[in-house]
Amino acid sequence: MGNDEIINEGSQPEVEKLRRILRNLLIIFISILVTLSLIIFILFLVPVLKEVTSGQRTVITNNLELKQDASYKKKISLMTRNIQLLSRKYSAYTSGQSYIVINTTDNRFFLYRNKKLIREGFCSSGSYTMLQTEGDKKWIFKTPKGKYWIHGKTTNPVWKKPDWAFVEEGLPIPSKDDFSRYEYGVLGDYALAIGDGYLIHGTIYKRFLGMPVTHGCVRLNDEDLEVIFNTLSIGSKVYIF
Description:
By secondary structure, the chain is α+β, with helices and mostly antiparallel strands. It has three domains: 1-55; 64-93; 99-240, Beta Barrel (L,D-transpeptidase catalytic domain-like). Helices cover 40% and strands 22% of the residues. It has helices at 2-54, 64-67, 70-93, 163-168, 222-231; strands spanning 99-103, 108-113, 116-122, 130-132, 138-140, 146-149, 152-155, 158-160, 182-184, 190-195, 198-201, 218-219, 237-240. The strands form four sheets. Strands 3-2-1-13-6 form a five-stranded mixed sheet, with helices on one face. Strands 7-10-11-12 form a four-stranded mixed sheet, covered by helices on one side. A hairpin with a 2-residue loop joins strand 10 and strand 11. The chain is flat. The N and C termini lie far apart (88 Å).
């Protein structure tokens, strides 16, 4: 009992010292917080309050003196030309003719007629894989990007297999007109050529639609392909990105 009393009496100054330290730290913290609040208030809130209380708003002026200013007239003229240029570009890309947009990132297509979206859905585009022979010859299977147009339309197309198809299967490459190059029924009922050997066509691998699995052509299911074939004409624009 006596030992406990000695310990309590001896620790009292230490407790008071700790309280003073904590009190001083609290005062310093509050001072810093108040100072930061004042800085934020002065820098940000005061200008906002001034604008709100003053009721200032951006208004359209009809100042004749401003309209006669040379630099003002020059800026307005430049803006007008830019708007006209953008308007012409937009009209050129979205004319009244039918066109199709192909998104190779999401593997989706968007078919337009009279500037209105009439059909959209999944497609398949290039896989971006590379095939290389033992020599220096190689192919990268990617769908080209840019502005294209329909060069030709075919029903019941026949696939003339290129050299890479035989290399991919580990077969010897035949002559250009060898009968083994011709394969029937793998491109669907329709095909639309967009140049450089690339086609928009059907597929027997419908489960892969929506994925980048082709050798560069754009694949579609039968229903979508039929609508696209009947909507687009020779010369219709094809935008691929």
